[in-house]
Amino acid sequence: MTGLGEWLAPALTAPLAQEMGSFWLPPKSSTVAPAVDTIFNLIFWISVVFFVGIVLVMVVFLFKYRRRPGVTQKPAPTHNTILELTWSGIPLLLVVVIFYTSYRVYLDMTTPPQNAYEVLVHAQKWSWSFTYPNGYIDENLHVPVDKPVRLVMSSEDVIHSLYVPAFRIKMDVVPGRYTKAWFQATEPGEYVIFCTEYCGTGHSDMLATVYVHEPGEFEKWLEDAARFAANLSPAERGERAYVKLGCVGCHSMDGSAKTGPTFKGIFGETHRFTNASPVEVDENYIRESILNPSAKVREGYADQMNSYKKSLDDGTLTEEDISDLIEYIKTLK
Ligand code: CUA
Predict the structure, then answer these.
(1) For 253-292, how does the pLDDT look when each residue is reduced to its tens digit (9 = 90+)?
(2) Can you tell me the distance from the alpha carbon of 24 to that of 169, in angstroms, rounded to the nearest whole number?
(3) CA 170, CA 172: separation in Å to the nearest integer?
(4) Domains of the chain: which residue ranges?
(5) Does 117-229 carry CATH code 2.60.40.420?
(6) CA dihedral 22, 190, 196, 257 (to 10 degrees)
(7) Ligand 1 lined by 197 (C-beta under 6 Å)
(8) pTM for this structure?
(9) Top-level CATH class of 232-331?
């Protein structure tokens, strides 16, 4: 890490600057956060000074040089070397300082340490999933405190963006390629993850949590979570698949309508469709709705769901997941 925070801090530790920092963003909880805030405050205050200064001078000149009877306009001077050097030199100096300080922090933020712990991040409309080195998949991001964590991220469908305000990190998650981000959390606790790239109807619901564990507790959590997942019943596995595969983004389990219809109480119901005759919800109908959602579009809903056929082909969705999901839906009475 650079000593940039310390280097610039004395100039910016004015109480007002600190208050503005916490007005915009939650308390700093990662190693890069202080440097990011310092640059944010630097640019913010440069902007404030120039905005106020320019508006003040404009207002003063409006009065001072307004047209009055008996005063004739003098020809404007054509050239003033000192003035022109000043108004070019000061902004040049400022942008060089902004570039230099930002670039150093940018390099830090884009270069994960060699020993970083790696978590795979999967984004889809409209949920996140996190895969740990032992193969365990969770809908939230769990990490150890004071250890560098690297995120290797990809998207199933459109461009999303992972944003953890408390860590001051933000990175696009793009289909067809991998993007990376890293952080080192400094405080145990829970922090919110936002999707910060507009990705459709459920964008604002595309949330997850970072759980930063106390020293030693992360390893224990991961072991327990993986062992727990291995001993579940089909319906319990189905509930996890419901989250892992992202069904949760569009289908509620409490009866409320989201982008898609709820899963509650549907098994055995007869559904009406805009493009097919009514059928009773059974195992085959659910399987078809996962792999070919456009075949039967529920009345009152748009044909919006992506097919999971591709996921079945590439192994991210298994036939077992589908039967687990069906068992889970059966339990939602
Ligand atoms: Cu995903 Cu916005």
Answers:
(1) 888 888 889 999 898 889 999 988 899 898 889 999 999 9
(2) 14
(3) 7
(4) 23-64+79-110, 117-229, 232-331
(5) yes
(6) -130
(7) yes
(8) 0.68
(9) mainly alpha
